[in-house]
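Q: My labmate handed me this sequence with no annotations at all. I'd like to see what the chain might look like in three dimensions before we decide whether it's worth expressing. Could you predict it?
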Amino acid sequence: MTKIALVTGSSRGLGKSTALNLAKKGVDVIVTYHRNAEEAKNVVVEIEQLGAKAVALQLNTADTKTFDSFAAQLQQVLKNSWQTEHFDFLVNNAGTGVSASFVETTEEDFDHLMNIHLKGVFFLTQKLLPLINDGGRIVNLSTGLTRIIFPGYAAYATMKGAMETLTKYMAKELGARRIAVNIVAPGAIETDFGGGTVRDNAEVNQHFASLTALGRVGLPDDIGGATASLLSEDNRWVNAQRIEVSGGQSI
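A: Here is what I predict for the chain of 251 residues:
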């Protein structure tokens, strides 16, 4: 029976890569996007070209007040497109970055990051739990910055550190439903995250490459492939783990 995954923030970057890697494994995907419907539609087309089914839904993971209507819309999509009431995999990928020192971080910055990376993930997952099949999986996203300290990411890394703790609690409490919960922590990656600094600034790129045992910074498919593999049957016994995917950065 075909598995269905919901990947938040999958119109671009790591989420898009995860969605495409899942499609290559025969998993159907519900793509979510915040603003760019056209990018999301293009991802749906790419997934369909890989032989899987896909639907795109708009979702603002920072606004918990929209989660009831999103869940209702998701239920309808599952019924109309898959003739089911449930899906199998939830990947909490959606995110953004704010680069500011501890001293310069504003309360607005802090709340923005918290709403997207912690509060939003907490309550969206809670809202969607009735729709996730028993025996399903959840993958959250963290960052290498919870282990490797680079000034400028205090608030961002704090939210991700909280997510690492929350992942263990989710794994413990959802174990009765046989739902495994893990968290992936990427190292430096060539994406548009943080204004695309790692991708577009050759000096920064080379600096992080020099800190990495495998001699380069990561690519989206390095993360998307790893995340998708966690949802494969081969990894059914992996649970409550923080899995850093950084090429051996700063070891």
